[in-house]
Amino acid sequence: MRTEVLTARSNIPILSPIRSIEPTLIWQGITNYQKKEEGRRKKEEEK
Is the pTM value of this prediction over 0.70? Predict the structure, then answer.
């Protein structure tokens, strides 16, 4: 079942750009969160 769904999705051209954009958005969210955490730690250390 899963392989059939994956092949069906890959055959649709509209979904391929969305699939490539999604991981980059997730990665950006992770990096932004890490930067915020680092900023908080630095502020706490200064106090």
Answer: no
pLDDT along the chain (47 residues), means of 10: 55 61 81 92 86
Encode 6-39: b = buried (16+ Cβ within 10 Å), e = exposed: eeeeeeeeeeeeeeeeeeeeeeeeeeeeeeeeee
Indicate the residue type of 21.
Answer: I
**Count of structural domains within the chain:** 1
- Identify the domain containing residue 42 by its residue range: 22-47
13 φ, ψ (degrees, to nearest 5): -70, -30
At residue 12, φ and ψ (nearest 5 deg) are -90, 120
| Residue 35 domain flag | yes
